Structure formats: structure tokens, C-alpha cells
TrEMBL record, chain A:
InterPro entries: ABC_transp_permease (IPR001851), LivM-like (IPR043428)
Provenance organism: Desulfatitalea alkaliphila
Signal sequence annotation: none
Domain of life: Bacteria
Protein name: Branched-chain amino acid ABC transporter permease
Protein keywords: Cell membrane, Membrane, Transmembrane, Transmembrane helix
From TrEMBL, chain B:
Keywords associated with the record: ATP-binding, Nucleotide-binding, Transport
SMART domains: AAA
Entry-linked InterPro entries: AAA+_ATPase, ABC_AA/LPS_Transport, ABC_transporter-like_ATP-bd, BCA_ABC_TP_C, P-loop_NTPase
GO MF term (any one): L-isoleucine transmembrane transporter activity
Swiss-Prot/TrEMBL GO biological process terms: D-alanine transmembrane transport; L-alanine transport; L-isoleucine import across plasma membrane; L-valine import across plasma membrane
GO cellular component term of the entry, any: plasma membrane
TM spans (from-to): none
ABC transporter domain span: 2-249
Source organism of this protein record: Desulfatitalea alkaliphila
Record protein name field: ABC transporter ATP-binding protein
One Pfam family recorded for the sequence: ABC_tran
Gene3D superfamilies recorded: P-loop containing nucleotide triphosphate hydrolases
Amino acid sequence: MITKPLHTKLLYGFILLAALLLPLYVPDPYMFQVVIMSLIFAIAVLAMNLIIGFTGQASLAHAAFFGFGAYGVAIMTKAGISFWLALPAAASISALIGLIIGPPALRTRGSYFAIVTLAFGVIVWIVAGNWVQVTGGHNGIFGIPRPTPIPIPFIGAIEFFDQPAQYYLVLVFLLLTLFIMHRIVYSIFGLTFMAVRNNEPLADAVGINTFTTKLISFVIANFFAGLAGGLYAAIIGAVSPSVAAHLLTFNFLIFLILGGMASLAGPVVGAFAIPILMELLQDLGHFRMLFFGVLLVATIIYFPRGFVGAVRQLNDKIAARRQAKS
Amino acid sequence: MLSVKYLTKNFDGLVAVKELSFDIREGEILAIIGPNGAGKSTVFNLMTGTLAPTSGKVFIHEENITGLKPYQIVKKGVARTFQTTSLFDQLRVIDNMLIAYKWRTRLGFWNTLFHTPAWKSQHDQAARNALETLDFLGLADKALAFIPTLSQEEQKRLAIGIALVCKPKLLLLDEPTGGLIQEETERIALFIKKVRDQGTTVCIIEHKMQMIMGMADRIVVLNYGQKIAEGTPDEIKTNQAVIEAYLGGDVHA
């Protein structure tokens, strides 16, 4: 429906190329790990963007669903199930739990929905820390197997022990998530999400079942949150209750706000830029937080649509000025 | 085609609508008029499921639609507009139309995800329909514009368009010309007649007497939530109860 201008397509092409070649120029293994984590977080933030940015429902239980995915993969793969089965299963469980808690939670609106989902998130975190038989309690689960190798006839198998392989694995899932989100957002189906965000009574009056629409968005978002969590568990090799903690939800939220809500580029930019910026500002120690606090407040006041929104504004201004000149 | 039967709505003891009955006939323009606070908008909200009536029923083609939700009532062929211009103002004009056409399609998650043949054909059909309706509205050249760039009148017109795009049998208009100047009002009035001539029955709430007298086939007059008169414009003009309601109870002409 919207065709992007040529220079935008070129930019995306360049970014994709840079992403594919990243293992060649990444400075050190530590930074590589930060990048891999960013890719995983990008998937989770893209999912959060669907329910918060596009559908306008502030779900603050996002890390809980990330946690369901992470614990799901951890428990299943330790029980000997193949990663390739455990990952979709864990994501589906996460979606299913969303389908169960969605109906009661979505009976509330606005800030109340935020509070209900936040409360649910905290409950999940507490359960993860105390249900020792299943989750290992506060120690969590260690020694999660790496993703099962993919056998390829005659050549051998793709294994996931080194960073480049893990990087490409996660990159494939990020691209898949982006592809699916793109399909959703640039469609009439996706427009109904935005309709609910923009004007719920009107959406209702033009034949959109707003409750079901919100629920579908919530379930899709939770599926991808679970997917990201599952990847996290297999790449890191260990999970602890912190992967389901509300603190992580707020990290995602900060990535989303700074990167740019209700755009597809925003979550990816946010999930990348912030952790890397964090690493670069390592020398500042805890004073980093002061910097991020100011950045967050300034962004919300002056660029409510985040970095990507600000770039778009600038783009529009330049285009308008050009038009005025000609 | 649509019948309202003994409709009553109480708001915590305040009776907004009381034992109201009227019919809307196929192909007519029916106007609902009355002083401020007479319960006109409440009647619309009761008819479209936004509010649940305390008692009474609404039928469309003999089918009881009382208690259905707004999104279900649209599917019965009854579309509405709101008193304050209600649009999806973060989106473009064409998006507004596509959203309103969505329920007629099967553009759900799986079809969208896999771009099935059904998705393609229905998507094209939705786009074609949206453009046709925009053409009918005289907004074809604004399809890609964002809502805030439209004039008041264009926004009012688009609000009617959103209701029209799914080809309803009955269109309920809540003060479609509120806040517009004379010239713009006349254009909207002409447009509403055009809508009727295309085969859509229209029920309209309006304040502007001159406009209503010129366009309505029949008029229902409400006061304090009750029907005080019903008839053709000429009958209403000379109706004693109506004159009293509008000019104050003490006047006896």
C-alpha cells in the first residue's frame, strides 16, 4: 500500500548487507555477544510494539511472556526434546497463556490494563523464583543445550557452538519476525489494530470487534515474546527469574520509546542502539543511568515517536522545504 | 425496514427516552428533531447498540437486534455517524475507508500472513470499493491525505463515507452539518439526497429546521424523550405541540 522511496530501500539494503557481514568486522567477542543479545531483544521489542505501539494497549507483562519462552525451551531441551521442536512449542505456550489471561485483562482499559498486566508479570516473576522443582528457583536452570545442529547431507551439519552461527541463527529469526510484522502492519488486518488504538468507539461502530482485535494482537505479541525468550535461553545456556522480571519489561519499553513506537524500524533501532550505547559509556559507571534518564525524558517530551519518528519528521521537513523552493 | 418499539432508557432515574415507537420506511429520509436534551442522540445510541435500552425493542426487517453490540449491528446493514465528527485521525483517508470495509472481507490473520489468493482478491476489492466511495464523496484526490489536512466539511463528508463504504441499507446520521456554514450545509444536504437516491435509507438527526423541512420525507419530533409528533414536513410545521415545544409552553397561537 505504501511504496517506500528509493533512498529508503537503498538504506535498508545497506543495513541488511552490513548485518550479513557483521562477523567480519565486529571488534571483539564481548561486543559480538552484545550484538547477539540486541537481536534477541529486537524480536521481543518488535512484539511489544505490536500490542503497545500499534494497538495502543500498554501490556507490561511482556517479560513474563519472554520468560515463558525462555523457561519453556530450557525445560524442554533439558528433557531431551529437540530445540527446533521446543522453540515453536515454547512460543506457542506463551501465546496460549496470553490467550487465557487476555480476556480477563482486556476487560480493563488504559492505565488499568497496564496495571493488571504489570501485576501478572510480577506474579510470574515470583513464581519463577519460588517454584524450585520446575524453575530451579532463584538459581534458575543451567546447562541448557545449544540449538540442535541442523544436519545437511554430504556437508555435515550446521552447529551452533560459535558466535557467528548463533548470530546468523538469531538474525534469521529477527528477519522472519520483521517479515511477519511487515505483513501485518501493512495490511487491512493491521489497520484494524491502529483503528482500535486511534478511536475505539468508531472502530466498534464500523464493524470491528475491538475486544477480539486486541486479543489477537496480544496473542501474536506474546508468541514473539516467547520466541525471543526461547532463543535467549538456548544462546545463553542459562535462565534465571530475571528473564521474566518486570525490570526487563521496562528495558524493552525504554528500547521501544527511544527507538520509536508504531514503526517497524524503531524497535530494532532501540534494541540495538541502547545496549551498544550502554557499553560505550561503560566508563561512566552508574552515572550512565543519569544520562539515560535525561535522554528518556527529553525523547518523550520532544520526540514522542522516538528516534525513528524524529528522523521521519526531519525527512518530511526537508521534503516540504524542497517543495516550497520548486 | 427498521422498527423501534416502546423503547425506554433510564439513566439512574432520569428518563432519557420513554416508550418511543416509530418506523423507518425503505427508501425514505426520516428526520428526528427536537430541542436540546430531547434524547435524539440517545435514540441513535440505543438503535446501534452503543447503549442497552432499559426496555423496548429494535427490529430490522422483523429481526430483533436489541442487545446486539455495535459491531454486530453494522453487519445487519445499519451504519451510523457520530455527533462530533469521529474519524481515525492518525491515519490516511484511504485507511479510514479500508478499516470500515474490513468486516465485509475475510482478511484475518492467516490470510494476511500467507497472502492467500483470497487475500489478494479481497484486498483488491476493498481498495476498489474504498476508491469508488471516495469518488462518490468527492474526495478521490485526497485518498492519501492525512485527516488533519482536510477541511471541516471534508471531514464531515468522510465521516459519512466511512459509514457508507460497507454499503449499508440504512444510514443513521447524527447532526451531519453541525458547525458548518450555510453554503457547506447545503452541499451536505444535496449529498445526503444523493445517498438516498442511490438506494440507501437515511435517518437523520438535525437542528437546522430549514434544511430538514427541505429534505425529509417524514419527521419524528421528540421532547423530553417522548414522541410528540410524527408526519410530513407540512404537518409538522403546523403541529401545535411542536410549536409549543420549540417556542415554549405558554405560547398559544
